[in-house]
Design goal:
This is DUF1254 domain-containing protein. The chain has about 450 residues and is an alpha+beta fold. It is about 25% helix and about 25% strand. It has 3 domains: about 5-25 and about 200-265, VPA0735-like fold, CATH 1.10.3360.10; about 40-195, Domain of unknown function DUF1254 (Immunoglobulin-like, Sandwich), CATH 2.60.40; about 270-440, Sandwich (Jelly Rolls), CATH 2.60.120.600. Helix 1 (about 5-35) crosses helix 4. It is globular.
């Protein structure tokens, strides 16, 4: 084999591994760029949705039951304060995550404030100066991070929704240096507006990766990755300037990494034996606090899969919500947008608040573009129920002849993935005495 071909193959291999290693960073940057570009945001602004999300809210696996607030954090100029109000009149939960998406703190009833509200001070790497004593201190190992908050009204009645939105408007973000007199909080409502926060699997994936590498400190466990990155032109302190030939290689590498992530999602272990429903991540995520660092290795494959699929894991997963996902029907065949399917949800779902089932395009893990209906949940009074209280959910590209009440749209001929969420999960879910039937092809 000629030296030139060997060099090319080496770059291809290292580019694929670099993409898998850097997936969490690139996902964080994709959301940040949407904040800056689509929302016209500035650091310490709060993007929120005044209505439940529709398909235009393009981030990884959001729901359409909550009212969201998204706050990108950047501590390069010093600590940032995040004020969380008491969770009164609506449910509020969320997390503070670093640039690797490791949760540093939960907020709300399941978090440090216990639902009573409080000030969280997010510290940059190496910060040694004093902070106010009445704050929850959150040191981050990275300069970038974010908080994704979800506010859930008690019901969908207008008064309850208004209380939930009022709770969102009480959140504050500002510099610790401005704590004595914080500036007027700026909110940006992105309801019904395009918010393109999904990573692109082409050569621009590596532009994003290079940007994040430049902004973040090096960690000892990432030094091998730095050698891989140098092979593809990404090196700390130097501009990333790939020529046309390298960009061609990087495009192919991004496509291959994308295929790896999808294959990994399809291979996740079942939550119940002989069922297709899985947890959305391999156990190593929750077991390591989502650092993916065990005593033997840093599991970049499991980490890449998770942050291709989702974002903003909680520090205490399962305390407020529990997620299940499925890429296959009851027979094990991949879910395809051109077909019609049914899910029978039993009447005794162990969810103290409510349950919801949502459809995403598997190729993006975001809402189905252009979909009229992206989710069905038990809050919806229009949902038709069977005599025993069970609910039959229909999945198809177009609504069935019987009407839209129990229908969720699927993406044409593309593969898709379903997520079933339980809010306020009960004991029978965890001891597995309750189970959810698989999605059936019709």
């Amino acid at each position: 084999m000629h030296d030139r071909e060997l060099d090319r193959r080496s770059v291809e291999r290292r580019a694929v591994e670099s993409a898998i290693w850097g997936m969490p960073l690139v996902s964080v940057d994709a959301m940040r760029q949407a904040f800056l570009r689509d929302a016209g945001g500035r650091y310490d602004d709060i993007v929120y949705l005044s209505k439940q999300a529709d398909w235009k809210f393009q981030v990884t696996t959001p729901n359409a039951s909550s009212w969201y607030a998204y706050i990108p954090l950047n501590t390069a100029g010093g600590p940032v304060v995040l004020e969380i109000p008491p969770a009164e009149g609506a449910g509020l939960f969320g997390s503070l995550n670093d640039a690797w998406q490791v949760p540093a703190a939960d907020v709300g009833p399941a978090g440090s404030d216990g639902g009573r509200g409080g000030r969280y001070v997010v510290l940059p790497p190496g910060w040694s100066e004093s902070v106010p004593a009445d704050c929850f201190v959150v040191p981050l190992p990275t300069f970038n991070g974010y908080s994704l908050l979800r506010v859930i009204p008690r019901t969908t009645a207008p008064d309850d929704v208004a209380r939930a939105l009022a709770l969102v408007r009480k959140v504050r973000a500002y510099r610790l240096a401005d704590a004595a007199d914080p500036p007027l909080q700026r909110f940006v409502d992105m309801a019904g507006k395009p918010f393109e926060g999904i990573a692109r699997f082409d050569d621009t994936f590596f532009d994003s990766l290079a940007r994040m590498v430049q902004e973040e400190p090096l960690a000892q466990h990432d030094l091998v990755a730095m050698a891989l990155l140098r092979s593809i032109g990404i090196e700390k302190g130097r501009p990333f300037q790939p020529d046309a030939g390298l960009r061609e290689i990087l495009r192919g590498a991004a496509i291959e990494a994308h295929a790896d992530f999808i294959a990994g999602l399809r291979a996740l272990p079942a939550y119940w034996s002989a069922r297709q429903w899985t947890l959305p991540a391999r156990p190593v995520g929750a077991e390591t606090g989502f650092t993916f660092m065990t005593g033997q290795l840093l599991d970049i494959d499991a980490r890449g899969e998770l942050f291709y699929f989702g974002c903003a894991p909680a520090r205490r997963p399962g305390a407020a919500t529990f997620y299940l996902s499925s890429c296959a029907d009851a027979g094990g065949a991949p879910l395809q947008g051109g077909r019609k399917y049914r899910l029978r949800v039993p009447p005794d779902v162990p969810a103290q608040q409510f349950w919801a089932v949502t459809v995403y395009e598997l190729e993006t893990c975001a809402f189905v573009r252009g979909a009229e209906r992206i989710e069905l949940n038990s809050y919806d009074e229009g949902v038709a129920r069977n005599a025993d209280g069970s609910v039959d959910v229909t999945f198809a590209p177009r609504p069935p002849a019987g009407g839209k009440s129990n229908w969720v749209a699927t993406p044409g001929e593309k593969p898709w993935v379903a997520m079933f969420r339980l809010y306020g999960p009960g004991a029978s879910l965890f001891d597995k005495s309750w189970s959810l039937a698989d999605i059936e092809a019709l």
